[in-house]
Automatic annotation (TrEMBL):
InterPro entries hit by this protein: COMT-like, COMT_C, COMT_dimerisation, SAM-dependent_MTases_sf, WH-like_DNA-bd_sf, WH_DNA-bd_sf
PANTHER family noted in UniProt: O-METHYLTRANSFERASE CICE, PUTATIVE (AFU_ORTHOLOGUE AFUA_4G14580)-RELATED
Residue ranges occupied by any O-methyltransferase C-terminal domain in the UniProt entry: 124-314
Alphabetic keyword roster: Methyltransferase, S-adenosyl-L-methionine, Transferase
Stored Gene3D superfamilies: Vaccinia Virus protein VP39 (3.40.50.150), Winged helix-like DNA-binding domain superfamily/Winged helix DNA-binding domain (1.10.10.10)
Domain O-methyltransferase dimerisation: 16-86
Entry protein name: O-methyltransferase
Species in which this protein is naturally found: Amycolatopsis rubida
GO biological process, one term: methylation
A GO molecular-function descriptor: O-methyltransferase activity
């Protein structure tokens, strides 16, 4: 019987990727938005979403089996509490983040993960013949989905960070590699006493979202290369989903660059997945395989973060969990 249970579990698990595929369909055609005002049958939904009625119903049937949407006895579908965050107008919407994590430049390399397992290098090279950031640079659709998804994810993580971590009053936060600045926008909205500097590559900073903040005196957008230098005299330097994108030697370069600009009392805060010991499920273990598929970095343990900080002339002071949605822990370090 044990072998039969094993076979059943493994066969069922091998189909799990289809749930992600179905989530992408629902997000792409905005099913949750269409059901916000009440249930609808597949024909109505297909007309609104420009899809095929039977095909869409089959996609939603799988999602309903996990509580994302609900199918009644007449074949009509309704939104559920679990599906609310797929709505574009939800305050905790993850619609763009779902599209990012299932975009082709991440999805396709995951199907070739064996290449990464054999070589230790990102599997994306076997699929596209180039690293993710080169694919990102030459494909506007990939870049758009990734930037929108990371922005949405960053905004959600910022809320938990602001509630969980004490940034000094009237402090200066430097968002290192902060993309379009959605994390910084959310943080400065929650903490009106803070000022912020966004640092990223010129092409990214040129499309920043900091203008959403009313007070122009509270923020600054700076273009640059975080491997070389970062703005000086910040009270807190934030790295969100940065260190996990790079191998150890490159992470040490980034941290050393920050260390050169820090004041004696400055802190570095890396918002990253931290994998705990043991075999319990943890989102970081899945994200680690996303990195093996499409990027050059990896998710680390607390001990591995301590080694990175030490190699850069810093000291890991604590790792703490934050509140709210998202998968990131708060990894704090200071200059030695």
């Amino acid at each position: 019987m044990a072998h039969e249970e094993s076979a059943d579990f493994l066969l069922s698990s091998s189909l799990d990727y289809l749930y992600s595929a179905a989530l992408r369909v629902a997000a792409l055609v905005n099913v949750a938005d269409q059901l916000a005002d009440g249930p609808a049958d597949p024909g109505e939904l297909a007309e609104r979403t420009k899809t095929h009625p039977n095909a869409l119903a089959r996609v939603l049937r799988l999602l309903a089996s996990r509580g994302v949407f609900h199918e009644d006895g007449d074949g009509r579908f309704a939104i559920t509490a679990r599906a609310q965050a797929l709505r574009t107008d939800s305050p905790t919407s993850v619609r763009d983040a779902v599209l990012m994590i299932t975009e082709p430049a991440i999805w396709r390399p995951a199907g070739e993960l064996v290449a990464g397992a054999r070589t230790g290098l990102a599997a994306i090279d076997a699929v596209y013949g180039s690293p993710f950031w080169e694919v990102h640079a030459r494909d506007a659709a990939t870049a758009g989905e990734f930037d929108a998804g990371m922005g949405q994810w960053s905004q959600l993580e910022a809320r938990g960070f602001a509630q969980s971590y004490r940034v000094p009053p009237d402090g200066l936060v430097v968002d290192v590699g902060g993309g379009r600045g959605r994390f910084l926008v959310e943080l400065l909205r929650i903490r009106p006493d803070l000022r912020g500097i966004l640092l990223d590559q010129p092409i990214v900073v040129s499309n920043h979202d900091l203008g959403q903040l009313d007070d122009r005196d509270r923020w600054q957008a700076v273009s640059g290369d975080f491997f070389e230098s970062v703005p000086p005299d910040g009270d807190v330097y934030v790295l969100q989903y940065i260190l996990n994108d790079w191998p150890d030697d490159q992470c040490v370069r980034i941290l050393q660059s920050i260390r050169r600009s820090m004041k004696p009392e400055s802190r570095v805060v890396a918002l990253e997945c931290v994998v705990p010991p043991g075999n319990a499920p943890h989102a970081g273990k899945g994200i680690d395989l996303v990195l093996l598929a499409s990027f050059a970095g990896r998710v680390r343990t607390e001990a591995e973060f301590a080694e990175l900080f030490s190699a850069a002339g810093m000291r890991l002071t604590r790792v703490m969990e934050k509140t709210g949605p998202g998968f990131l822990s708060i990894v704090e370090g200071v200059s030695q």
